[in-house]
Amino acid sequence: MRKEVEALDIADVTANWVNKQALEARTEQRIRELADLAHTPLFFGRLDYGGGAHEGHHFYIGRRHVHDAVGEPMVLDWRAPVSQPFYQASRTVPLGVDLRRRFGYTGGELTAYEDERLTGPAGPDAAPRTSRLLQEEIERPRVGPMRDIVATIQPEQDEIVRSGLGGTVCVQGGPGTGKTAVGLHRVAYLLYAHRERLARTGTLVIGPNRSFLHYIEQVLPALGELEVAQATVADLVAHVEVRSVDAPTAALVKGDARMAEVLRRALRSYITLPTEPVVVERGSRRWRIPAYELAEIVTELQEREIRYGAAGEALPQRIAHAVLVRMEEAGEAPDDRVQDAVARHHAVKAAVKAVWPRVDPAKLVLRLLSEPEFLAAHAEGLLGAEEQRAIVWAKPARGVKSAKWSAADAVLIDEAQDLVQRTPSLGHVVLDEAQDLSPMQYRAVGRRCSTGSATVLGDLAQGTTPWATAGWREALAHLGKPDAVVEELTAGFRVPREVISYASRLLPHMSPGLREVSSVREAPGSLDVHRVPGGAEDGAGTADTEGSAEDGSEGGSQGGAEDGAAGGALDAAVVGACRTALLREGSIGLIAADVRIPALAAALTAAGLPFLDPGRETTAESRLTLVPASLAKGLEYDYVVLDEPAAVVDGEPDERTGLRRLYVVLTRAVSGLTVVHRRPLPHQLAAPGPRESTL
């Protein structure tokens, strides 16, 4: 198929240079879409139909459509309607399928197949209740970036993937439920089902950070989709350079949805009702528009609630129209050219500048944050005095370029920008790790899909910002999609049952009411908890029965990091755990509190263990990644070594956020988790628990 496209001669089929360039670009894209992928088979399943419209036929299911030399289909795209029974059919509802076959591959070579008969009596060839090949595919070692899950999509995931373009879907899913993969595959499905429409309007995937985007960036190209943009929220609102970090109190206020109304009021305050008439001279005639009539025009534009910039552009035309009415009443016959000339008249331009001046969005936010009186005037009844003081700069900046903007300030500028000029909307937006967005950030994302739809992905239990989402309905309202359908994924496929059960002990203390993920994978021995002697718990029983009492000797330059011989013992134990993990196949993630990263980096270097930073692609030769806890969200590793859980909790501004951060890092493992600690474990992880070993 690729050679057919490469052999096309378009020299004689293009009418002009523009058409030639467009056709060449489309041909090059098609060649890229048909590129071979190493170790990725073209098909992974087969359906044999015993009834219905396809009775007597069998179809191979794969990542993309493949046809033979005469155009007959050999492999059907997994997104095609006829492929859906591969994911949805069961013995209860076979959907006309007599037999479903799954293929197993090793390094791209076909090594096994497994049949599941869906009709007739269950015979000796009926597949086991849990597919062995499906289990092996889920558990296949993670080396390199995230991969597609087309061979393992489950029925409840498939229903979300194939939901229509017209509506917004919010997916609440705990660790390992596949919500990120579902969101990416939904984009691939929508591009298949609505390609022309989305080609015009565009699609966008929004992730929490660059490391996460790098991790997922190969999923869609592997499915032949190359035109989906990826960005973080910070990328969307990058109107100014971010050079500072807000205090939590200030960030909370700036991220509150009330700031949208403060900005609207502040912007509208620049509008003033005219007190002088406009006099337009044309030839020997003078045309006068009195102040009261100008005020009526201005008031009408205000009441229409159109964008400030659009209204400012309409005002001179409205004034010019009033002049043309008088010309017609005097017997003249002006046309559109006359109206445009009047709108450009210096008297009209001066009047517009006086009553509806141009406003720079960044300067508007700068004034709000620099002038307490200006902020107070427009935040009255919205923000309290303490909240206003929290966001006003102690030392006002001289200008936009010299100001030390924060990430929250950039979002405010984006809001102001939209008040002045409407933000273009895309056809579909996928928002991952949405639980960490502030209301103002939701509004920023919502502007990018105001006329399109969205897929919102997140887990309320993994919210680790001070403004983390409390409930999806409120968040969806801020997004501008209050009628979105909320789906919940509760079946876990990534994290072993032993690990997710251990992490779920934290749920009642940080997110009461959320359902625990029920993992379909049992992996005895997948969880180990090792205690290093020298902590506050020595002589007082195991960590499972201890509280999280602070040891006064644990301060110092690393915050909660240990000092002296005890700190060295912990570092050595962590390095040893990494060495043990590296004896196994797959990727290894060493996750620790951010303040512990320098010490662990030094220990790994001294031990001769090379390691990668988050976002760098693992390889067969370099499989260990050192991950700060703040960047672990959304990532996954075959084996995880977790350093000092108490330090992870202490690294956050409050206990609830700290426990949520700990919940995130505990659930990054696909095959095994090793916890190494010297300080007492957080008491929320209390017994009954795994038997600890002392290192």
TrEMBL record:
<dbReference type="InterPro" id="IPR000212">
    <property type="entry name" value="DNA_helicase_UvrD/REP"/>
</dbReference>
<keyword id="KW-0067">ATP-binding</keyword>
<dbReference type="GO" id="GO:0043138">
    <property type="term" value="F:3'-5' DNA helicase activity"/>
</dbReference>
<keyword id="KW-0547">Nucleotide-binding</keyword>
<dbReference type="InterPro" id="IPR014016">
    <property type="entry name" value="UvrD-like_ATP-bd"/>
</dbReference>
<feature type="domain" description="UvrD-like helicase ATP-binding">
    <location>
        <begin position="152"/>
        <end position="505"/>
    </location>
</feature>
<protein>
    <submittedName>
        <fullName>AAA family ATPase</fullName>
    </submittedName>
</protein>
<dbReference type="GO" id="GO:0005524">
    <property type="term" value="F:ATP binding"/>
</dbReference>
<dbReference type="GO" id="GO:0016787">
    <property type="term" value="F:hydrolase activity"/>
</dbReference>
<dbReference type="GO" id="GO:0005829">
    <property type="term" value="C:cytosol"/>
</dbReference>
<feature type="compositionally biased region" description="Gly residues">
    <location>
        <begin position="554"/>
        <end position="564"/>
    </location>
</feature>
<dbReference type="GO" id="GO:0000725">
    <property type="term" value="P:recombinational repair"/>
</dbReference>
<dbReference type="Pfam" id="PF00580">
    <property type="entry name" value="UvrD-helicase"/>
</dbReference>
<feature type="binding site">
    <location>
        <begin position="173"/>
        <end position="180"/>
    </location>
    <ligand>
        <name>ATP</name>
    </ligand>
</feature>
<dbReference type="GO" id="GO:0003677">
    <property type="term" value="F:DNA binding"/>
</dbReference>
<keyword id="KW-0378">Hydrolase</keyword>
<feature type="region of interest" description="Disordered">
    <location>
        <begin position="525"/>
        <end position="564"/>
    </location>
</feature>
<dbReference type="InterPro" id="IPR027417">
    <property type="entry name" value="P-loop_NTPase"/>
</dbReference>
<keyword id="KW-0347">Helicase</keyword>
